[in-house]
Design goal:
The chain is an alpha/beta fold and 161 residues long. Helices cover 27% and strands 18% of the residues. The protein has 4 helices and 5 strands, in the order βαβαβαββα. It has a 5-stranded parallel β-sheet with strand order 3-2-1-4-5, with helices on one face. α1 packs parallel to α4. It is globular and about 40 Å long. The chain starts with 15 loop residues before the first strand and ends with a helix. 33% of the residues are buried.
Amino acid sequence: MKDFIKAKAKKGAKMRTVYLFLDIDGVLNRQSDWRKGYTIRDECLEKLISLLKDISKDSSVAVVFTSTWGRMLESWWKESGLARLEDVPNLVVKGSIYQPKGRTREDAVRYYLRRHNVAHHLILDDDRSLFPDTHGLNIVFTDSDKGLTEMDCQRLLAMRR
C-alpha cells in the first residue's frame, strides 16, 4: 500500500516507529455528530494533533485508520480537516485496514500487527464490542458522547512508555 503522507524525518535519524490504529466515529467526533455524516470536531482533532506531536518527539508515527471512513480517505482528506496531520513531524499515514465480514476490528488489527511485524502500537477506538479480547493490546476506549479527551491522550501516552 502506498503511504498517503510521507514522514518528514531528518535524514539519518533512526527512530522507533509507533503505529496508531485510529477510529474516527466516537474518537474524532461525538455520537451527536453522526447524523451529519463525515464530521470531525475541531477540539478532538486538536487533541489528536497534540498527541501525535508528543509521540513524534522521540518516535516516528504511522497512522492506520480502522474506521470505515478509511475507504474514502483521499476523497475527504482536506475537507474533513485531517490534512492538518501533515504538520506533524515524523508522521506517515499508512491508509486503512480491511475488516473482513464476520471478523472483528480486533482481528483486523492483530492481523496487521503480525503481518507487518509491528513492535510498538497504540489503538484509539470507542467501540468495545469490536475488541472482545484486549489482552496484549495498547488500547484506549473513548466515550462516544465526548470524543477524544485530554485524559484519553494521557492514558495513551502512558501506554507507550
